[in-house]
Amino acid sequence: MQISQNTVVSLNYTMFNVDGEIIDKNHDPIVYLHGDYDNILPAVEAALTGKTVGERISVTLTPEQGFGDVDPSMVREEDISAFPPDIEVGMMFETRDPETEESQQFRVVAIDAGVVTVDGNHPLAGMTVRFDAEVLAIRAASDEEVVHGHVHGEHGHQH
Ligand code: ZN
Q1: Domain at 72-119, CATH class
Q2: How far is ligand 1, taken at its centre, from the CA of residue 92, in Å?
């Protein structure tokens, strides 16, 4: 079976920076519905089309194709009193915009003289990364999965 529209694909992946160092890899296999459902980066999805179990892909993603450019307006300084007392560099916080209901993740990148600098950019923003993956399994999606636009069951949506 080949990866095509409305197949459910399981992958192992590893991401590398431009120096060839590993920056991310999956723990459990990722499982996604193939076919332009916005479940996986489009450049990766395109490289996977037509592949079979055991085949590998290696895709180099520019920031545009991958995790976006760094947006300086996403870096903010806040008074330390707005944070819990055990705050440390590297901690993640989630905020919710009361108007749009959209949640946004921020990373603490610096703490200095009572001022906390938080960065809402994706940790990989601005980076060119290589995305290597191996196809572990392919199956036809159920009608319900196609209607919902995502995978059900193990590693998928539970509902
Ligand atoms: Zn569903």
Answers
A1: mainly beta
A2: 28
The CATH number given to 7-67+124-148 is 3.10.50.40
How close is the Cα of 76 to the center of ligand 1, in Å? 36
Give me the DSSP letters along the chain.
----TTEEEEEEEEEE-TTS-EEEE-SSPEEEE-SSSSSS-HHHHHHHTT--TT-EEEEEE-TTTTT----GGGEEEEEGGGS-TT--TT-EEEEE-TTT--EEEEEEEEEETTEEEEE-S-TTTT--EEEEEEEEEEEEPPHHHHHHTS-BSTTSB--
pLDDT, one tens digit per residue, over 9-64 is 999 999 999 999 999 999 999 999 999 999 999 999 999 999 999 999 999 999 99
pTM exceeding the 0.85 threshold for the entire prediction: no
